[in-house]
Predict the 3D structure of the following.
Amino acid sequence: MQINTETIEEMPIRLVIHGGAGLIKRDKLTPEREQAFMQVLTQSLNVGHAVLAAGGSSIDAVIAAIVEMEDSPLFNAGKGAVFSHEARNELDASIMDGAARMAGSVAGVTTIRNPIRAAHAVMTKSPHVMLIGQGAEAFAAEQGLAIVDSSYFFTRHRWNQLQKAVAKEYIALDHDIESDSLDPDPLSDDNEKHGTVGAVALDCYGNLAAGTSTGGLTNKRFGRVGDTPLIGAGTYADNRSVAVSATGTGEMFIRSAAAFNTAAQVRLQNKSIAEAADNTLAEIAAIGGDGGLIVLNTQGDYAMRFNTSGMYRGVISNDGTARVDVFPGGESPVSY
């Protein structure tokens, strides 16, 4: 089959990313730290856009964009993953191809440098959709992916978050009260309550892809897994509708089948992507959750919706201008 390159050059390309949504307070986010976040988001967009602009696939663009954020200590994914109650970094990731609706994911891994690459390997090199724990790690090693000592994921910032969470828990136990009812520590970093990263992309061939990666929740226990590695909850892509990546309170996103719910509204009810995302977030809020969604269709239309005070996010398209933001009010062009 001969491809008309002139037609491809006219096709829209788009990459949309997020770096987590949550209680992000302007007065707690210093200009220096905000700039650091904006720089990594911009780098992520530029790396992913380079793949798309060169005629690469949406899958490869999603991986490139997410790897950039996984390698940064700023986000709750890869290098910057939070600690569990057992002082371990347990990472999850998933990816989905909108053309064939193939998908792959890993959960509870502790030695894979870039879980999104492992999720892709599961999708393309195995007959399965999800692998977990030591099995996923053994598979990743067989595929030649970068395996690191668990100490690679240590950051002082995340370690301090765990110590504060544990201390708060013990105070609650001593006083026989719910830990959530305690006044928040003014020094705690609620700005990064949800630091999950994700990307959705549209390539010049008209194909969608979505991916998501996370370290989960600080102080999580018992091998807890959230929505990120669950296809249809944290990640979904279908050329017939949209590509979606989610961030927020994972249990509620699972119970709402958030990513698939959003895509189904677009495909089966002809909802706009913004309306579909808002409907899904309203369902999540109704059962006590919050967070955000990035959504993209095959026309290049996109939405970045959240019901929290902020969401680290950005978008880049054919002209190569990266736009990033944290708080409501639109995305501004940047040149870091």
